[in-house]
Specification:
The chain is 33% helix and 23% strand. A 7-stranded mixed beta sheet has the order 3-2-1-4-5-7-6. It is globular. The protein has 222 residues and is an alpha/beta fold. It comes from Microterricola gilva.
């Protein structure tokens, strides 16, 4: 993947974020980064092992995954919440990673067809407006044989306490975390998205945020 600016920021036409929630989420994920990293480190080390020098990330947030990129590499960051941008730039500078920051929605990244070797995401497909459209966009920008590497929280099994908590808390959870749904069957979405292969591990994390406890991690190949 090449020919990308490392400084420009482009805006998605007509897109606006609720300012208070945007600022809250930027602050929340900055404060929670050490805790989240400790919770997800084992899966991230496996899924993000050996990332290439140029990576596209859907929903880069405040830079939680920069630590998995090689020093001197480039992150093409698709991040619509502009309140994250200052923290993301600072984190990229500390990590020694070049940043190509794009203020766009994941459904329309603006990247060329078949231009990326690797796309990554973590805890993002839960909050996009249209997961199927995002996965189609990821397939579009990946080169043949390229990989989409992901960690996501997903709907729990029917009849479980976690599923009951997800159902009860779905509206305040979504309002607080910018549309995040704790009830999406993202494994089903990934398997139906048309990738050449999809390898998925299911696992649980143990946190006070009960709707967040059921997860998947894996690699899909174009």
């Amino acid at each position: 993947m090449d020919h990308y600016s490392t400084t420009a920021t482009s805006s998605a036409p007509g897109f606006e974020l609720h300012a208070a929630r945007g600022r809250f989420n930027a602050a929340f994920f900055r404060v929670m980064d050490p805790y989240m990293e400790g919770t997800l480190r084992r899966q991230k080390r496996r899924v993000f092992a050996g990332l290439p020098r140029v990576v596209v990330e859907i929903g880069s947030g405040v830079g939680a995954n920069l630590r998995y990129l090689p020093a001197g590499g480039t992150l093409v960051a698709i991040e619509p919440n502009r309140h994250m941008h200052g923290l993301l730039r600072a984190a990229a500078s500390r990590a020694g990673v070049k940043l190509d920051l794009r203020e766009r929605m994941a459904e329309q990244t603006g990247l060329p067809d078949h231009s990326a070797d690797t796309v990554i995401s973590s805890l993002v497909l839960c909050s996009v407006q249209d997961p199927a459209a995002v996965l189609a966009e990821i397939r579009r920008v990946l080169r043949p044989g390229g990989t989409f590497r992901f960690l996501e929280h997903v709907v729990a099994g029917s009849g479980t306490p976690t599923r009951a908590a997800q159902r009860i808390l779905r509206r305040p959870w979504a309002w607080t975390f910018e549309g995040c749904s704790c009830e999406r069957d993202l494994e089903g979405s990934l398997r139906a998205a048309g990738f050449g292969s999809v390898a998925i591990e299911r696992y649980r994390v143990h946190t006070p945020f009960l709707p967040f406890n059921t997860h998947i991690a894996g690699i899909a190949r174009a």
